[in-house]
Amino acid sequence: MPQQNVSDRKHPFAFTFRRSRIAFVIVMLLATIAVIWPGYALFSSATPLILGFPLSFAWIIFWVIVSFSAMMALYISDSNHEEAD
Amino acid sequence: METGTIILIIVGLYLLVSLLTGIIPALTISSSVSGYVAGDRSMNVFILYFVIGASIFSSFAFLGGPGWAYSRGAAAFYIIAYGVIGIVPLYFFGPRAWRLGKKYGYVTQAELLADRFDSKFLSVMLGALSVVVFIPYLTLQMVGAGYVLNVISEGLIPYWAGAGATYIIVLIYVYFSGVMGVGWSNAFQGMFMMVMAWALGIYLPYVLYGGIGEMFTTIMDAGHEAMLQAPGLTAGGSEWNWWGYSSAVLVSAIGFSVWPHFFMRSFAAKSAKSLRLSVVLYPTFLIFLVPILLIGFSAIVLFPDVVPADSILPYILMQLDLPAIVIGLFCAGALAASMSSGDAILHSAASVGVRDGIRPLLKNPLSDKNERLLIQISVLVIGLIAYLFAVVIDVSIVALLLGSYGGVAQIFPVIFAMFYWRRATKAGALAGLFGGIAVNTLFLMFPEIKPLPMHEGMYGLAANVILLIGISLVTKPDDPERVEKFLKSGASSKVFRGRS
After folding, report:
1. A-chain residues within 8 Å CB-CB of B74?
2. Do B395 and B439 form a contact (C-beta atoms < 8 A)?
3. Is residue B313 part of a domain?
4. Residue B352, pLDDT score
5. Same domain, yes or no, for B256 and B342?
6. Which residue ranges in chain B fall short of pLDDT 50?
7. Given this model, what pLDDT does residue B315 score?
8. Residue B494 is nearest to which of A1, A35, A49, comparing CB atoms?
9. Which residue of B208, B265, B421, B480 sits 20 to 30 Å from the alpha carbon of B198, by its own alpha carbon?
């Protein structure tokens, strides 16, 4: 469908198939660094308590939510760009 | 009614429902090998979601998770941390494997690899190694089931009888229904366990301390703040180091998506899209580990020095004077944890053992009917072997399983190369995979020669990647036609189609 190529050019910041995948990989690399050293070392203390959870625990839960959101966004983007099979 | 009777009735009802959910839905599946091993590629998002989630629903999560939180504190967050990153590769590998499976009839991981790298040897070795790893894995699930029933019934149900009764049910539905039996029973067991975990994980901190925040404050006031600081403690009680923690997370995450019993569920999906959605929803299962860990934390101050730490959950339940119905439900929950992993492992061990390990060695090809029968017989034989190990268990089996995590991670680079690297060759793949396993095993057996205190799997992976790339580049490229088939297994983009 040539129209889609044209629309890609019109919107240089549109989330194309390739761009959304690159964005996703970057978020997941960040998540990886966040849950091991050195990212986790910065948020490794027991205090303060966040919603009752120690910081070290809340930080990991936070990244579960981030990666869930990132995967959901990629899934929606892929569904728009790919053919169903 | 007596407490023991109520517990037995609830557990019996649970087992009956498990048996029915395992047998009934599978009646619609064809009696072919593809039907038995891959459910005729018909699993929808609902079933796949629970099948993928069941990988963390094991005896380890239900007993070991609280045990880790109780004895090692923040080290237990490792279980959640590796799941977050470990599931991601399956989003990319899964649909590719699914498309190839649909087109060429693959139902196992080793079949894909053996075809891409043109090596029967690879298939037979992976088949044999999988069975060697799966048997202790299954044994541990049986041990968990027997143990929980024994402790909760206060010795009323002997350990061997608890494990035996539970796994006869599993054997029956796996024997008759194959993967669809695993799928539907996992959906039932999964929902049941989620409810139990959340109920207990929130109930315990409130009833014992007045809230989650109050519980953690009490733990810190009692002088255990170091426990809550990442990366927590080692099994010996000293502070764990970042090398050990980070490398354990990485090795587990890398190995996670390529465990053969996990990876091969890709072939059972109804469509690439439903497989993807199930993978995307996986973190909702990870969150289920939060209440499980809270259970362990709730015991740190109130019940110190319980040994072994893995028994902390049944221990708390016995101390609290809970109504029999709650204990019965919990018992069933623990069995669900054991069974939902055990059935998947049993099914995969038999399927992989026959299809990848034995079939390539036969001179005359098996008929579809005979192959299915052989897999079913293997289910019984493997179940029996694992049970024998379970009733005469010793420490070496646990060690064998823990050692296998680093070994399984070595499959990742060849899977990646299969889908994404044109230049990977047969010699490179074999050298990488088996070189990696050899290095991993070497450091596992002689931990004192490690240059840094990292997980042995990291050394294996380093050797693996160097060998895979190095040997591939100095050997002749593989047949391009065969290679393209695997590289082009990605989805077709609407935009790209417009261009061609």
Report:
1. 44, 46, 54, 56-57
2. no
3. yes
4. 94
5. yes
6. 495-500
7. 84
8. A1
9. B265
pLDDT value, residue B312 = 87
Residue of B83, B284, B498 with shortest CB distance to A5: B498
Distance from CA of A40 to the nearest CA of B (A): 8
CATH code (residue B366): 1.20.1730.10
- Does residue A10 form part of some domain? no
Residue of A nearest to B220 (CA): A46
pLDDT of amino acid A6: 44
Under 8 Å between Cβ of B393 and B139: yes
Mean pLDDT of all residues in A57-80: 93
Which ipTM value was assigned to this complex?
A: 0.88
Decide if B57 contacts B340 (C-beta within 8 A). Answer: yes
List the 6-25 stretch of A: residues with Cβ below 8 A of B. 8, 16-17
A31, closest residue in chain B (CA to CA)? B85
CB pairs under 8 A between A and B: 141
Q: Establish if A67 belongs to a structural domain.
A: yes
Q: Which of B77, B211, B495 is closest, CB to CB, to A56? A: B77
| Whole-angstrom distance, CA of residue B172 vs CA of residue B51 | 18
* Chain A from 29 to 68: CB within 8 A of any B CB: 31-32, 35-37, 40-41, 43-47, 49, 51-54, 56-57, 59-61, 63-65, 67-68
Instruction: For residue B498, count other CB atoms closer than 10 A to its CB.
Output: 12
Q: Residues with Cβ < 8 Å from B155, sequence gap 6 or more?
A: none
Q: Is residue B425 part of a domain?
A: yes
Give alpha helix (H) positions in B210-287.
Answer: 212-219, 225-228, 242-256, 260-263, 272-280, 283-286
**Sign for the pseudo-dihedral over CA of B422, B121, B433, B138:** positive
Q: What is the pLDDT of residue B403?
A: 72
For residues B366 and B470, membership in a common domain is answered with no
Instruction: Please tell me which residue of chain B has the smallest CA distance to A77.
Output: B493
Half-sphere exposure of B120 (CA within 13 A, CB side): 6
What is d(CA B299, CA B370) in angstroms, rounded to the nearest whole number?
53
- State whether B84 and A31 contact (CB < 8 Å): yes
For residue B268, the tally of other CB atoms under 10 A from its CB is 26
DSSP letter for B43, please.
B
Q: Is residue B405 part of a domain?
A: no
Q: Which of A3, A36, A81 to mutate to test the interface with B (most CBs of B within 10 A)?
A: A36
pLDDT digits (tens, 9 = 90+) for A4-44: 444 445 466 666 778 888 999 999 999 999 999 899 999 99
B220: distance to nearest CA of chain A, Å?
8
CA gap B180, B26 in Å, rounded:
5
Task: Say whether both B373 and B429 belong to one domain.
Answer: no
- Judge whether A6 lies within some domain: no
Is residue A77, in this structure, part of any structural domain at all? yes
| pLDDT, mean over chain A | 83
